[in-house]
Amino acid sequence: PYTTLFRSGSSIDDASHRYFVDCSASFRREIVALNTSDIIASASLLVAFIALGIACYAISRANRTTSAATLVSLNEGFRSAWSRFLSAKEEQKTAELAELLNLFEIACAIRQEGSVSGNSAELLREYLDNVLRLLTSNAYICQQVRPLLQDEATFMFVRRFLKESRSRPGVTIPLEWYQ
């Protein structure tokens, strides 16, 4: 009776076998397609990680370059400010000292906010320590600082740097610089 259902003369077993073979081939194609998409996704993920690594490296290099440029600019500014202060006539000395201290405060603020990194940050800290040592060891400068303090916000970043520098040996800071 089963043979009458299939006009081609095949039996039910042949029909089910053909159906199974068709499903199996279709399933294999889906597995192959799934594996191909997995390979493409994995390759894309690898490329994305490589691109992320390159971007991080580029950002790191850009930060170092910017830090070095900031340090060079500060160095030139300090060289010029020191030159003007040291060569100023007596009536101009206080104004030039104020400019020097303003630059010192800017450098302290840059250091404290972390705008410089790596070797540039270390060089800036050492330079600021040296400037602080020079400023605090000069009696004339110590006398002139107090009149320059207009309010509590004047030289705020210098004060923060002074608090940070307290623990460093070799820098004696006059009490009036904290007030």
Element layout with pairings:
Blueprint: H1 12-87, H2 90-113, H3 118-137, H4 139-148, H5 156-165
Low-pLDDT segments: 1-6
Question: How far apart are the first and last residues' alpha carbons, in Å?
Answer: 111 Å
Look at the helices and sheets and give the structural class: mainly alpha
Order of helices and strands: HHHHH
Global morphology: elongated
Mean pLDDT: 78
Q: Count the DSSP helices.
A: 5
Instruction: Compute the CA-based radius of gyration.
Output: 37 Å
For the biggest sheet, the summary is: none
Strand residues, percent? under 5%
Q: How helical, in percent, are the residues?
A: over 70%
Number of strands: 0
Notes on the structure:
- The chain has 179 residues and is an all-alpha fold.
- Helices cover 78% and strands 0% of the residues.
- It is built from five helices and no strands.
- The chain is elongated and about 85 Å long.
- It starts with 11 loop residues before the first helix and ends in a 14-residue tail after the last helix.
Provide key terms for this protein.
disordered N terminus, 179 residues, 78% helix, mainly alpha
Brief characterization of the structure:
It contains five helices and no strands.
